[in-house]
Design a protein that fits this description.
mainly beta; five-stranded mixed β-sheet; 1 helix; 47% strand; flat
C-alpha cells in the first residue's frame, strides 16, 4: 500500500547544564574616559567544565557588546560594552565543541563615574584668616580612584554677602584657598566641579566661626512658670484646695448618717 508523504520537524534543545552569571550580581560598570567598560562573566556546567566561548546573540541597538576570553582561569570571560549610560538586557550563549547551547539573559548597568572631594574644612574655627585644602578625586585607568584635574572648579563662601574665592593650584586636582572669617556666625562653603565624562560635583559644607573656635551649644530656654490669677497669692490657691476638700468630706459624712 502507498502512504502520503509527511514531513516531521524535530527540535532538540542542547543545554549540558551550562549557566552564565556575573560574579558581582547585576553589575554596575563605570564608563571611565579612555577605557572600555568590561563586565566579568562566569560560565560552567554542573561538572565544573567551562565552555569554549560565549557569544552575544542580541543586544540593544544603542549598545555595542563583544565577549573575549578572560585572563583569569577557565570559565571566565570579559564582556566589553559601550554606549550611553543606562540599564541594558543582553542575550548571550555558551558554545562548547562548536555547538551553541542554551541562550541566557543578563542585565548590566552602564554608568558615568562621579567626582568626589576631600578637604580639611572643619565644623568650627576661630575668627580670622584661615587656609583650607581641596582635592578632587574620581575613578581613573584600572578602575582605581585618584586625583583628577577638573575642567571647572568654583568655590563660594556665603555669609554676608556671598563671595567667590580664588583657588591656588598645588598639584593635579589639588587646590588651596584663603579666606578671612572676620565675623562670628555660620558660614556655608559650596564647592562645584565638573569634568568631561564624569557627573558634576556639588558639595556643601557648614562651618561655625566663634571666639573659642568650638561649636557653641544652643542656649537652653528658660522655663516660664504659670502666672497665678490676678490678685491671688500662690498660697491662696493651696488654701482654696484644702477648704474645698474639707467641705466635700463633711457632706459625705452627713450622707452616711442618713
Amino acid at each position: 500500500p502507498s502512504y502520503p508523504a509527511k514531513t516531521i520537524t524535530v527540535k532538540s534543545k542542547v543545554t549540558d547544564s551550562f549557566t552564565i552569571s556575573t560574579p558581582e550580581g547585576a553589575p554596575q560598570v563605570f564608563k571611565i574616559p579612555g577605557e572600555k567598560p568590561t563586565v566579568r562573566l562566569k560560565s560552567t556546567n554542573s561538572k565544573g567544565e567551562a565552555p569554549d566561548s560565549i557569544r552575544v546573540v542580541s543586544a540593544p541597538e544603542n549598545l555595542s557588546a563583544f565577549v573575549n576570553p578572560s585572563s583569569l582561569s577557565a570559565g571566565f570571560f570579559d564582556l566589553e560594552i559601550d554606549g550611553e549610560p543606562g540599564i541594558y538586557k543582553l542575550v548571550v550563549q555558551p558554545v562548547k565543541g562548536g555547538v551553541p547551547l542554551d541562550e541566557q539573559e543578563i542585565t548590566v548597568q552602564l554608568a558615568r563615574p562621579g567626582l568626589e572631594v576631600k578637604t580639611n574644612i572643619p565644623l568650627s574655627a576661630k575668627k580670622g584668616k584661615r587656609s583650607f585644602d581641596i582635592t578632587i578625586e574620581g575613578l581613573k585607568t584600572g578602575n582605581k580612584k585618584g586625583q583628577l584635574a577638573p575642567d571647572t572648579i568654583l568655590v563660594t563662601v556665603a555669609h554676608s554677602p556671598e563671595e567667590e574665592v580664588i583657588l591656588k593650584l598645588l598639584d593635579n586636582g589639588k587646590f588651596t584657598f584663603d579666606f578671612d572669617f572676620d565675623e562670628i556666625g555660620t558660614y556655608t562653603i559650596e564647592i562645584f566641579a565638573e569634568k568631561e565624562g564624569y557627573d558634576e560635583l556639588l558639595q556643601v559644607y557648614t562651618i561655625q566661626i566663634s571666639e573659642s573656635g568650638k561649636v557653641e551649644p544652643p542656649k537652653p530656654e528658660k522655663e516660664i512658670d504659670e502666672e497665678p490669677e490676678k490678685g491671688a497669692k500662690p498660697t491662696d490657691n493651696k488654701l482654696i484646695i484644702i477648704i474645698g476638700a474639707g467641705i466635700i468630706g463633711y457632706l459625705l459624712w452627713r450622707l452616711s448618717k442618713k
